[in-house]
UniProtKB/TrEMBL annotation:
Record key words, sorted: Membrane, Transmembrane, Transmembrane helix
Region described as Disordered: spans on this chain: 79-137
Designated name of the protein: Uncharacterized protein
Membrane-spanning intervals of the chain: 50-74
Source species taxonomy: Bacteria, Bacillati, Actinomycetota, Actinomycetes, Propionibacteriales
Ranges of biased composition (kind: Low complexity): 79-129
Amino acid sequence: MNEEINRRLREAAEAHEPNRPRILARVERGMADPVVRHRTPSIARSWPRAAIVGLVAAATLATGGLAVAAIGGVPSLPAAAPPAVASTSPVPSPTVTSTSTPSARATSTGRAPATTAPSSRSTPSGGSRLQDGPLRSQGSIDVHSNLYWAQNDLILKTTEQLTSLTVELRIAQTGGVQKTGNWQTLSSDDFTVTVQESGGALLYRWTLKPGHTVPAGEHEFAAQYNHAPGIRKIKRDTYHVHAQTPRASSEVWGGFTPPR
């Protein structure tokens, strides 16, 4: 008797076909109900329709299997796993990092110190003026100069007594130029002598002290220095002289000629 009942129940379970359209319609009505959607967010809203149909079918098969198993002795089939549901959540936009190059800005270390010109009467560029008023001048390289050391000479002639005199010899920095000495034929007590780097040159300056005078005649001023080994170029070496007599002022300037 039991075997007959079991056989009929199995046949009924196997012949059972669930009404899928009705089940799907109920699910859709539940999704469309505004009250239900407001209360609890339905997971069905984020699943595609195909996924919902597959889930309903799986649930139906599982229900039929459980009914057969409950009839006694018939092993139940394992429930089918729900199909994978692709996520429909929006993909976050990638963060864009600015790659703009910062504008170049000049680095400042503060105000540059003011540069005071070594003389208010600089040598005019180009050309020469070898005589003016009572003054006559001639610049040359001393004959004893060699490949390592040199001396620039200035011969200054005046036909009148000078009450003010400034003599400048500018030795261009052609490489390794370093002062080694200086001299003049006039008394050292009459002059203030300075040597300094100025504008890419070694500047020798003689300034007549106040109250002193320079007699008429021929006078010589010399600047001595070491330099880089070899024949030194003298094209940029210059001299400048400013003198004052009781009657007027005079200026001469020029360059230096090679030794004879």
